[in-house]
Amino acid sequence: MSRYVKSLEEFLNLDYKMVITPFEDEGEKGFVVSCPEISGLEVFGETLEEAIEEVREAKIALYEVFLEKGINIRYPEEYNFEDEDFSGRMTLRIPKTLHKRIKYYSEDNNVSLNTGIIQLINDGINYADIKDMKGKIYNSLNKFNKKIILKVEYSMNDREGEYYNPSFKRSKSNYSVPKFHFEENPFALRQ
User: Domain HicB-like antitoxin of toxin-antitoxin system: where (predicted)?
Assistant: First the structure.
């Protein structure tokens, strides 16, 4: 099963985490409902019931925008995929050179070949998620201010504080989690 929503009906029936915040400004009172899992979903209602009803309308509008722009909508973080049959076992063929690199990685880390493969797959998925997050942050910033550049430092760390670069050579590192840096874009038009 895909990790992405396939239809509007499915999207409307999924329960995403919602954040409800009471709102008061210059005599106007109400509630703001937002969804941290769905970029752009934030609605206002004078009553809580009205705000929750607005969520459905916002989800319909966002689905159409995401569909038009080719953006995949993820399932909620807490979605239970237990209906799927995951045995924890899979078979694949890889080139001999990649097999050799994985073997060296596993030996270097004193883990079995299977554990080495699991670590590398996990690191690769985490890297892809960071890259995806970087793109979303960059696109959001770019809408408001083209003078900002987002740079990300990322490495796949082992327990000793060292990391493996793409050629699987051990290197020293002074960071273990992605670091985000915002810098002025030298190519932005000055106003």
Answer: 19-124
Q: Do residues 139 and 148 touch, judged by C-beta distance below 8 A? A: no
DSSP code of 14?
S
Distance of CA 66 to the CA centre of its chain: 16
Question: 115 by DSSP, 3-state: which?
Answer: helix
**Total residues found in the chain within this entry:** 191
Q: For the segment 112-157, what is each residue's pLDDT rounded down to a tens digit?
A: 999 889 888 888 887 777 777 777 766 666 665 555 555 555 544 4
Of 56, 36, 37, the residue nearest 45 (C-alpha)? 56
Question: What's the pTM?
Answer: 0.42
pLDDT score recorded for residue 65: 92
Q: Which amino acid is at 50?
A: E
Can you say whether residue 35 is alpha, beta or left, with left for phi > 0 and alpha for psi between -120 and 50 degrees? beta
HSE-CB for 50 with a 13 A CA cutoff: 9
